């Protein structure tokens, strides 16, 4: 019974090899009656078996821990990506146009008609008209001056969050100066590019430097500025393209 119990303890606790179990099992009956010999033999057996057990048990543990660490580090790869926030912000911005007052919305969209009408008329006629281009630049200069004056109207009231200091009032005077310079150019291309710069400056003022404007007004300003800039650039592109075609036609007629 003792031999069987000792073998079971050996297999469960000490994890000794099979050859060592056979050797110890054969010697156990010789030491059964002597308690001192039994205790010394058991101590010696534990000392001999302990390094084997630790060396054998540490190897699988290290392998398992390495696998668990690899699995743990690979988990973030399979995480679900959060939805992009800019898409939600853009949807809110477009929905905020519904909150804009009807007069402000309709007058702003109606004010874009002269910008769009000039390049559209040139495309329909197939010829570049300098008078229409100059009229577009003149109307753009008036619009830039109006947008610059809005800054004065926002900063002058007593309860306004924008103070009538040098920064706000000087920034409001920059777009009219650029608009006047655009009208002084003989070339329409230079005047249109100057107006694009003036419109970009006014948009930067209204979006970044004056955050107390309502959301619907900022969205309306972005839409209006994009349409005006694209219309001016379309006129410049049509000028270069249609004038080149007209010069080629003149050469063919002369020949």
From TrEMBL:
InterPro entries: DUF3429 (IPR021836). It comes from the Eukaryota. The keyword Oxidoreductase does not apply. The keyword Translocase does not apply. Keywords: Membrane, Transmembrane, Transmembrane helix. The chain crosses the membrane at residues 104-124, 136-154, 192-213, 219-242. This is TMM69 protein. The gene is Tmem69.
């Amino acid at each position: 019974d003792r031999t069987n119990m000792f073998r079971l303890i050996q297999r469960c606790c000490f994890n000794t090899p099979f050859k060592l179990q056979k050797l110890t099992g054969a010697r156990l009956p010789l030491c059964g009656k002597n308690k001192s010999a039994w205790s010394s033999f058991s101590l010696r057996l534990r000392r001999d078996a302990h390094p084997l057990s630790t060396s054998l048990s540490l190897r699988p543990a290290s392998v398992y821990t390495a696998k668990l660490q690899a699995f743990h580090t690979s988990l973030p790869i399979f995480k679900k990506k959060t939805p992009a926030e800019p898409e939600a912000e853009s949807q809110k911005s477009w929905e905020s146009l519904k909150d804009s007052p009807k007069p402000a919305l309709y007058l702003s969209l109606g004010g874009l008609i002269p910008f769009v009408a000039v390049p559209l008329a040139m495309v329909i006629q197939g010829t570049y008209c300098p008078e229409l281009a100059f009229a577009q630049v003149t109307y753009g200069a008036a619009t830039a001056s109006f947008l610059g004056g809005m800054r004065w109207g926002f900063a002058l009231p007593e309860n306004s969050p924008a103070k009538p200091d040098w920064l706000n009032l000087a920034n409001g005077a920059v777009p009219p100066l650029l608009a006047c310079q655009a009208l002084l150019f003989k070339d329409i291309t230079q005047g249109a590019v100057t107006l694009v710069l003036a419109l970009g400056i006014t948009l930067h003022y209204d979006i970044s430097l004056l955050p107390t404007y309502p959301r619907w007004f900022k969205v309306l300003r972005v839409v209006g500025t994009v349409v005006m800039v694209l219309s001016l650039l379309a006129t410049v592109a049509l000028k270069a393209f249609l004038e080149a075609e007209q010069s080629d036609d003149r050469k063919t007629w002369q020949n």
